[in-house]
Amino acid sequence: MSGAFGELTQTPLQKVWIPRTSKPSVPQFTNSPTMVIMVGLPARGKTYISKKLTRYLNWIGTPTKVFNVGQYRREAVQTYKNYEFFRPDNEEAMQIRRQCALAALRDVQTYLSVEEGQVAVFDATNTTRERRTLILQFAKENGYKVFFIESICDDPDIIQENIKQVKLTSPDYKDCNRDEVVEDFLKRIECYQKTYQPLDDDLDRSLSYIKIFNVGSRYLVNRVQDHVQSRTVYYLMNIHVTPRSIYLSRHGESELNLRGRIGGDSGLSERGTQYACALAGFIRSQCIRDLKVWTSHMKRTIQTAEALHVPYEQWKALNEIDAGVCEEMTYEEIQDHFPEEFALRDQDKYRYRYPKGESYEDLVQRLEPVIMELERQENVLVICHQAVMRCLLAYFLDKSAEELPYLKCPLHTVLKLTPVAYGECLNPGEQLNTPFLKQEACWWISEVLPNSIHLSKSFVLWKSSSLPPLKHVIPKLPRIYLAPLPV
Question: Which keywords annotate this record (predicted)?
Fold first, then answer.
């Protein structure tokens, strides 16, 4: 690295930090907030779509919140008896359900008009024209845009699978056996079918909507009107529920890592090469069908991938965050030469942009095409960099912008994410007592025989906070090798 350090892009007077007195600024993609209205019979994946869409919009910087009317109903009626509560001729129950919908709409109004939210996802069946008219009138009175998402499914296998995966763990069916749950829920669906009025291509041609048939086998899109709706449609047309796994790993230790310098484009160190070989052995042991391997354009990720001896695809979007004039400097040098920049970064690490470089916020925008393609793909191994891995994990784990820059992504670690239909999880990250080498501050993973692997006491279950809790199940044989973090 040359001795001359780069110049700042702005004068100190222009970069004085002013503490925020209100909520963080966010991109305003629309002049007025948007209500996304789910439509469809029960067990059609509406809540799954709602949560995935909300997670995506929040990740790209559009404040979004789900309002699940079913949760309002459970709070109003503490004890669920059976499907008869949903019969259209049960007037008392119909009144309760209407009041729950109105309560949810009041909270939508608070979120969009008072709390500066940008998108509210109204997660309910909304199967009657009367209910949708009520929502449209509410939106008109408050100046909100409306976009409908209707999930249509007539495949009995998909419906049965949804019931088994989601409804069996629903609070409505606590302490019920499997057969009772399936029987009662199918009768609940029949109650809704009696009054179901799908969006009509003629009667509703003035509305903005997308119809999703059988979990994405076909789509019908009508009158997309703005940027949020366009991105919503594009996202929904890319997601799928095919079983697959996504493996995330940083490159092996690089020469600049060894010297404590950030950025740059150096090759692997000796230990980095050892990790690349260990990673190759681990991937081979998994026997992953049709695995695709992605790297950045930087030497250290390419050299890590080459040890696999398989084709790999290079993505410039996966390059490490650009540190601008601070490239190839140590943090001590940054603090000495650019103390103001160092302080500014500490105050807002997500939005801070290196002079002539990037911020985490910039990186998220750069990685959006990667997320879209990951949603389209099946089994993928992504070999990337620390900041990039943090951004990808923040998307999958539904972490906020404030949490994102502090996610733990140590060197020589593999994470396996397994999206599941109607839910999504990160496989338990088993902290293993593996034979490993400790040299200075770097840990690497060696190949281990199955009978020598034992779970340590620091077993941690990673999950998305917005999704139903996962059962804490310890597998017979660990699937993933994680190096313990240095103490």
Answer: ATP-binding, Hydrolase, Kinase, Multifunctional enzyme, Nucleotide-binding, Phosphoprotein, Transferase
